[in-house]
Design a protein that fits this description.
Layout lengths: L1 E4 L4 H12 L7 E4 L10 H6 L7 E3 L5 E2 L2 H11 L9 H30 L13 H24 L10 H15 L10 H11 L15
Parallel strand pairs: 1-2
Antiparallel strand pairs: 1-3, 3-4
Helix pairs in contact: 1-3, 1-6, 4-5, 4-6, 5-7
The structure holds glutathione.
């Protein structure tokens, strides 16, 4: 199995953490794709993923899986270990709902700010920038952080009592926010910061710099 990765970017990091949670990261061939160099826009990569995004998981039979949630479902149902996508109908529905909120309110919001209101991947990749659109997503990201802080005041994890892919999505989105566009999680969001420290302490997050684990 081949994992097309770009270390430090939120969606590939979601797959890295899911594989690590299942204890199978070392069973996968990892290929780093440099997005700043446009390596995801080559004809060869586009043939594998027409959406020209990472992550991509290429199975031994040649099946090329893109879309991080789909990949996480595959990992969760292929390997033993802690469930990542919920147990039973209701929990699975809540995990998917909260994970999608994590994408919309954090990962996609900060991604839009990064691509449109900062240099992003550079002028050769960011061909359709719209600064006003990007700027609007800065506030959306900050609102998302406040939303998840409020959620975590009432429950241990993003989707309820149990750890899930929803935690992974929000965690990797916050790391990206602080690393690249330098939008920091406000210190006053104590529930979010405490949760972040707990998630960051998991063995699956050993690759994440200590400075990205809440404060
Ligand atoms: N919906 C996709 C989004 C994947 C995505 O946007 N990945 C980013 C890296 S985190 C990417 O490859 N961006 C390439 C680009 O913006 O040109 C998923 O869930 O996998």
């Amino acid at each position: 199995m081949k994992f097309y990765d770009s270390l430090g970017l939120p969606n590939p990091d979601r797959v890295r953490i899911a594989l690590a949670e299942k204890g199978v990261l070392d069973q996968v061939e990892i290929i780093q794709v440099n997005l700043w160099e446009g390596e995801h826009r080559t004809a060869a990569f586009k043939a594998k993923n027409p959406s020209v995004t990472v992550p991509l998981l290429e199975l031994d039979d040649g099946t090329a899986l893109s879309e991080t949630t789909a990949i996480t479902e595959y990992i969760d149902h292929t390997f033993e270990g802690i469930p990542l996508t919920g147990r039973g109908a209701k929990e699975r529905a809540v995990v998917h709902m909260m994970q999608r909120r994590g994408e919309q309110k954090i990962v996609d919001a900060i991604g839009t700010y990064f691509h449109h209101a900062t240099l992003g991947f550079g002028p050769e990749i960011e061909l359709n920038q719209n600064k006003a659109w990007g700027d609007a997503h800065l506030q959306k990201t900050l609102d998302g952080m406040a939303y998840f802080d409020a959620v975590l005041r009432d429950q241990r994890h993003i989707a309820g009592a149990n750890y899930s892919m929803a935690d992974i999505t929000v965690f990797t989105g916050l790391n990206f926010s602080e690393t690249y566009p330098k939008v920091m999680v406000p210190q006053g969001l104590t529930a979010l910061n405490e949760w972040r420290a707990c998630i960051g302490a998991r063995a699956s997050c050993a690759f994440v710099p200590e400075t990205m684990k809440g404060r």
